[in-house]
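tool_call: predict_structure(chain=1)
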Amino acid sequence: MRLRTCILIGVAVLAAGCATGIIEPVNPTERSASSTRSSSLVTSSLVPSEVRGTNGNIDLPRRTRLDVPFSSQAPDADWTDPRKQEGCEEMSVIMVHHFLKGTGLPDPLGDLIDLSTWESENGYSLDVNVEELAAIVEDYYGHKTAVSDEVTFENIAAQIAAGNPVIVPAAGRKLGNPYFSGEGPWYHMLVITGYDNRYFYTNDPGTRRGDDYKYEHDVVLNAVHDWTGVKEEIETGRKVMLTILP
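tool_result:
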């Protein structure tokens, strides 16, 4: 049954992928000196039990990185196929699926084509929003999903600290990635795999150099916008994030 909730349910990831590089806990509102975003407390209902202390306090590590396997959305470097040009949603899901299964990426191109074909056969467009992507994940892979519109550094960090990669949609041109072609995609999707006190670490399928690519916190948070159906209106899309559960 589909899980349609705006509360992220924390569960430990039991697959081979696990958090690495955890250092001492940090106050969840700590920011880098370059950040001007006002601090916000972790929304308590979104904090997985794995990052709560015995007294109920939130205990986020200073750094956490998840070993999520990476592929660009054009594994064969052929960007002429529309399924690859618009394949950031699919490849983001594929990376997280294989992380949860602990199986690496044995055939990323085949996975992408198979998933894209299934979507087409089931009435999905090349671009999908997060709610549609959650439905695809549940129907195709059988995972449960959780969608939340409380997109903050703290809530993303809490999920990652619990072992859950976070998928976010974005107005791609606001990311400012120099490895994107031209100005970059209007609409994009990527996987947040880690964080420290300045950067989010991501698997960004929009470039072959997207493995463990770093974006500053505010760059990601300002760029997060869901698909609206009109590419030029992407910056009006809602702030939302997706977690895939085993």
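agent: The helical segments are 82-85, 88-101, 108-121, 130-140, 153-161, 217-223. Proceeding to next step.
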